[in-house]
Amino acid sequence: MLPITQSGALSPAARRIRVQNAVSPKQRGDPVHSILRDPDKTLQTLAEQSRGHEPAEFVQHSLHPINPFCKDLPHCNIFACITPDILHQLHNGVFKDHIVSWASDAMGGGQDEIDQCFCAMTPHTTLRHFEKGISLTSQWTGTEHKNMEKVFLGVLANATDPKVVRVVCGILDFIYYAHFEVHTDESLAQLDAVTALGLNSGPRFDRSCLGVAYKQSLLQQAKT
Questions:
Q1: Which of 55, 68, 101, 182 has its Cβ near the most Cβ atoms within 10 Å?
Q2: Cα 27 from Cα 19, distance rounded (Å)
Q3: Domain that holds residue 215
Q4: Which of 47, 80, 113 is the C-terminal boundary of a domain?
Q5: Does the structure show a pLDDT above 50 at 74?
Q6: Cβ–Cβ < 8 Å for 133, 119
Q7: Residues 171/194, Cβ–Cβ less than 8 Å
């Protein structure tokens, strides 16, 4: 059993185990398949912890001593109720953290060329002009990511391999489809089609699959 202090705080040994089980920052966002937790086993672990039994799963699963509001709700699996977050998973995660950096690496001039292309774009009243490029900006908001998405294909056009452009186009299509408040069979088929585009773009472009796990998660939520 893992020791818990009398005040209810984790002991140093328990904290070390929790840290060891944490996902490394460099591994966050990797396309791995994670199994959903079992709500009954989680409730059992919390009950054992409340009785002072200190089960190992309490620390290993990063649980806290609470009385879950959902435990008596019928037909409720709280772990299946957490929907994908468009802002953090798609705009910040798939697009900014993965696709922009991947496409920059795929261009001959790298980030410098990306900046030059952003600067060279003709200003338009309905589009944001990134006159200083994007590499010098340290803090981004969802609005800025959306503005980047509107012009990113124009930045890549004739500057990199056409396969890169097709992958980015498919991912941007997915992001826009994901904004639908209501889905039909046709829109779900389009989500499947653009996901397949990212999966079938050839081994040279495997880094594009970094975003596929996010997309498949969102697609599964939409279908259910």
A1: 55
A2: 14
A3: 86-223
A4: 80
A5: yes
A6: yes
A7: yes
Which residue matches tokens 């989500």? 191
Reference 148, options 193, 194, 101, 181; nearest CA is 101
pLDDT at 43: 92
Predicted structure pTM score: 0.62
Count of residues making up the chain = 224
Residues 108 and 134 in one domain: yes
pLDDT at 204: 44
For residue 200, give both structure tokens. 């079938």
